[in-house]
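Thread amino acids onto this structure.
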């Protein structure tokens, strides 16, 4: 681990440049996999948030989640990143999150914590409950979505298809076409140098936006912003996309003063397609 940390610091100039940050930054750098961040919506859309998190957890994708929206709370530490191990629904209907503090100590102390009176022998068996001071704990999913801002996820799996296009863009908009030969997961990551790769007094000024559209020119997901963090991702999280042709628009919002230099990384889960630039 110390050697890995040293290599990461070298990539980002020095140890001072790796203080703090978001989970998705480390996940992308360490795995090279499609990586993104999604909002937990402050608990206001719990059913859909649970479905999304469950879909990702069932695929065993590594996830982290930053705490907290309103300061320290019942053992939770603000400004600290936790590992999101799983989400589950008990036979009682209660939705729980299984979380781990990477310090291996310091756990949630509220409902469904290790010492909570809410546990029964049956629910312990359902959840895989273990009473140990190991940093891992359960907590109500509703509380997590209210207290934690969002989650980072690396879509870590074997991809049967991969293609990279190195772009040097001095115009505002460039269009790319992407063929998806079968129904499968498809992700596009636009990536350049992040602010961390430079000294603090040097700002690369990344200001790029990427949009993905299907064959009916309906936008797929939200736009991807490629800014200070150095990358952005388009695609449907943990979901297959229909067979067909897709369009990517890469927009250099600073084209009057800066040439965008970045790579477009295309990932096909089951069968490789193709991607290329198309004149507008």
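Threaded sequence (280 positions):
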């Amino acid at each position: 681990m110390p050697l890995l940390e040293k290599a990461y610091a070298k990539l980002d100039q020095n140890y001072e440049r790796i203080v703090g940050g978001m989970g998705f930054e480390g996940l992308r750098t360490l795995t090279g996999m499609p990586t993104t961040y999604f909002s937990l919506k402050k608990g206001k859309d719990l059913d859909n948030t649970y479905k999304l998190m469950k879909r990702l957890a069932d695929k065993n994708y590594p996830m982290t989640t930053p705490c907290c929206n309103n300061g320290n709370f019942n053992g939770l530490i603000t400004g600290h990143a936790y590992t999101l191990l799983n989400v589950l629904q008990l036979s009682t209907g209660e939705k729980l999150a299984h979380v781990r503090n990477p310090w291996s100590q310091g756990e949630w102390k509220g409902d469904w914590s290790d010492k909570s009176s809410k546990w029964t022998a049956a629910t312990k068996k359902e959840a895989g409950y273990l009473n140990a001071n190991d940093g891992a704990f359960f907590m109500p999913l509703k509380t997590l979505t209210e207290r934690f801002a969002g989650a980072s996820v690396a879509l870590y799996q074997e991809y049967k298809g991969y293609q990279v296009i190195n772009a040097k863009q001095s115009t505002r908009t460039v269009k790319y076409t992407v063929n998806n030969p079968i129904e499968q997961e498809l992700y596009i990551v636009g990536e350049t140098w992040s602010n961390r790769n430079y000294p603090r007094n040097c700002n690369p000024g990344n200001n790029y936006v990427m949009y993905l559209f299907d064959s009916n020119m309906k936008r797929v997901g939200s736009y991807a912003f490629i800014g200070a963090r150095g990358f952005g991702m388009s695609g449907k999280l943990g979901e297959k996309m229909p067979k067909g042709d897709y369009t990517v628009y890469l927009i250099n919002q600073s084209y009057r003063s800066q040439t965008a230099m970045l790579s477009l990384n295309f990932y096909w889960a089951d069968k490789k397609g193709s991607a290329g630039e198309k004149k507008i």
